[in-house]
TrEMBL record:
The gene is LOC107811249. Transmembrane segments: none annotated. GO terms for molecular function: beta-glucosidase activity. This is Beta-glucosidase 11. It comes from Nicotiana tabacum (Common tobacco). Keywords: Glycoprotein, Hydrolase, Signal. It holds the Pfam family Glyco_hydro_1. Belongs to the glycosyl hydrolase 1 family. Residues 1-24 form the signal peptide. One of its GO terms (biological process) is carbohydrate metabolic process.
Length: 516
């Protein structure tokens, strides 16, 4: 007890507030974007809902992953308790001025056996949340699968490794469209499809944590990094396109909504001007983005991937190719940072092949000079470059920026100037892209609340609101970034100096819950 107290004290940061900060001289505002454009913020089910064992929910692969120790004991059992606090949270969204909220449905809360009967309590929760949003004029943008496949389906047939998931996912999506589609217009089948395939099956650092013994960051007890990421991606594309076709056939004419897929997108730039690094940069785009986008636009994987991956690359039948091609109303992009790309020809000569050696590239992250350690650089935002790449390579299909935001240590101050700088720079960069013709329809900051993060549990945070995990009420505290974003959304930041005041006193000691 004593030790705990001391630890608490040690970690305790009293952030004395009531200060004014000048954030101003913005030469743009929300009104520079089209009225039909939406600005929001986001979350996902496992990261904020909590109530993991309540009202009939069963575990997902993310529950299993965190309970196996991925985050040193942290998990989403309670998280931000958004399951119970959704009304309060929607009120905070109203206060902030959000026009849209991106969240995901927990498949295993809605259909606890993965297939079959719908859980009435799960249905009631999502209906209540959607109604609460809609009644406040906030558009719901819904993701169907955000890393959280029902564990029961993982156990039965290996989840995304099996084609069996296609029919179960279609049935799940059908229920969501039928039950919620009268109020939800924007549907995303899978979040960060590429990261899920790589993190989950090549390097093993995200659920379900599979990789070959000597490849992953692991440690993985099972998996095959050589083959599984490609199989999983293939099944995702077949699933996504089936769900897209289902919506078109059965719901589009009455509900008038849209179905998209979400991809994680770095901006890649050559490490040097050497031709080899420039070629490697094109390969990086082909492997990370083309892997999913090429089939959706052109009906097949990029040639460079097929050549390099060879017989391990699954193939589309003619019929599948036709099904996948064009099966997209919009692309959701999650973008955070720029990476430098180096050619790595030696990788290709290795006996053991996985995604990274197939691509024969090395990715290098360069921390900008002015950026505090542990935060993303913001002085040279790469969002516009990614959007220009999309426009040039895949035609100008509609895009939603589904995630973009700054990371800080969770116990950092509410005076999150680095997050303000980041959001400001990236939204400005987005505006430049749109003025040059990019077909972007919306922007969602990641994240609304400080939730459980995919990579490190509760160590890092992205939220506009800090959530005090040591307080039984899980009280939410607005950060400076919440006030900046709110002012921006309310059209107040154009050429004006804004006085921002930050909340009350708050103790940050939540690290202590997990550190002993
Ligand atoms: C935040 O937590 C980290 C890791 O536990 C610790 O090293 C650091 O000192 C903490 N920072 C503050 C401001 O408490
Ligand atoms: C907030 O942080 C900025 C930059 O670190 C600093 O200039 C400012 O004084 C801080 N505000 C308060 C009230 O501590
Ligand atoms: C991965 O699968 C391939 C193809 O089935 C096989 O040749 C290889 O030995 C497997 N590797 C591992 C590490 O299991
Ligand atoms: C590449 O060339 C451009 C223009 O020729 C130059 O501005 C840039 O500094 C060069 N980059 C590197 C990494 O050498
Ligand atoms: C602006 O768009 C045009 C046409 O798509 C493109 O050629 C040009 O490179 C873009 N400008 C920048 C700075 O990316
Ligand atoms: C927690 O919430 C309850 C009910 O709203 C309230 O009475 C209590 O003061 C709150 N406690 C804290 C520490 O905020």
């Amino acid at each position: 007890m004593m030790q705990q107290q001391q630890q608490r004290l040690y970690l305790l940061v009293l952030v004395a507030m009531h200060f004014a900060v000048v954030v101003g001289d913005d030469d743009f505002s929300r009104n520079d974007f089209p009225a039909s454009f939406v600005f929001g913020s986001g979350s996902s089910a496992y990261q904020v809902e909590g109530a993991a064992f309540e009202d009939g929910r069963t575990p997902s692969i993310w529950d299993t992953f965190s309970h196996a120790g991925a985050y040193n004991g942290a998990n989403g059992d309670i998280a931000c308790d958004a399951y119970h606090k959704y009304k309060e949270d929607v009120q905070l969204m109203v206060d902030t001025g959000l026009e849209a909220y991106r969240f995901s449905i927990s498949w295993s809360r809605l259909i606890p056996n993965g297939r079959g009967p719908v859980n009435p309590k799960g249905l009631q929760y999502y209906n209540s949340l959607i109604n609460e949003l809609v009644s406040h004029g906030i558009q719901p943008h819904v993701t169907l699968c955000h890393d959280d496949v029902p564990q029961v389906l993982e156990d039965e047939y290996g989840g995304w490794l099996s084609e069996k998931i296609i029919n179960d996912f279609i049935a799940y999506a059908d229920i969501c469209f039928k039950e919620f589609g009268d109020r939800v217009l924007h549907w995303t089948t899978v979040n960060e499809a590429n990261v899920f395939a790589l993190g989950g099956y090549d390097l093993g650092f995200t659920p379900p944590g599979r990789c070959s013994p000597h490849v992953g960051i692991g440690p993985c007890s099972r998996g095959n990094s050589s083959t599984e990421p490609y199989i999983v991606a293939h099944n995702m594309l077949l699933t996504h396109s089936s769900v897209f076709r289902l919506y078109k056939r059965k719901y589009k004419s009455t509900q008038h909504g849209f179905v998209g897929l979400n991809i994680f997108a770095y901006r890649f730039i050559p490490h040097t001007n050497a031709t080899a690094d420039e070629g490697a940069t094109l390969r990086a785009y082909a492997f990370y983005l083309g892997w999913f986008i090429s089939p959706l636009i052109f009906g097949d994987y990029p040639v460079t991937m097929k050549d390099r991956v060879g017989s391990r690359m699954p193939t589309f039948t003619r019929q599948e190719s036709e099904q996948v091609k064009g099966a997209i109303d919009f692309i959701g992009l999650n973008h955070y940072a720029t990476l430098h790309v180096k050619d790595r020809p030696s990788a290709f000569e290795r006996d053991y092949r996985d995604f990274s050696t197939d691509a024969a590239i090395q990715l290098v992250f360069e921390q900008g000079g002015v950026t505090p350690k542990g935060e993303y650089p913001w002085t040279q935002p790469g969002l516009r470059a990614v959007l220009e790449y999309f426009k040039k390579t895949y035609g100008n299909l509609p895009i939603y920026i589904h995630e973009n935001g700054q990371t800080t240590p969770r116990n950092a101050t509410l005076n999150d100037t680095g997050r303000v700088e980041y959001l400001h720079a990236y939204i400005r960069n987005l505006l430049d892209a749109m003025r040059n013709g990019s077909n972007v329809r919306g922007y969602f900051s990641w994240s609304f609340l400080d939730g459980l993060e995919l990579l490190d549990g509760y160590k890092s945070a992205y939220g506009l609101y800090y959530v005090d995990l040591d307080d039984k009420n899980l009280t939410r505290y607005p950060k400076l970034s919440q006030q900046w974003y709110s002012n921006f959304l309310k059209g107040k930041s154009r050429k004006s100096n804004v006085n921002l005041e930050i909340g009350k006193e708050v103790s940050h000691s939540s690290e202590s819950e997990f550190s002993s």
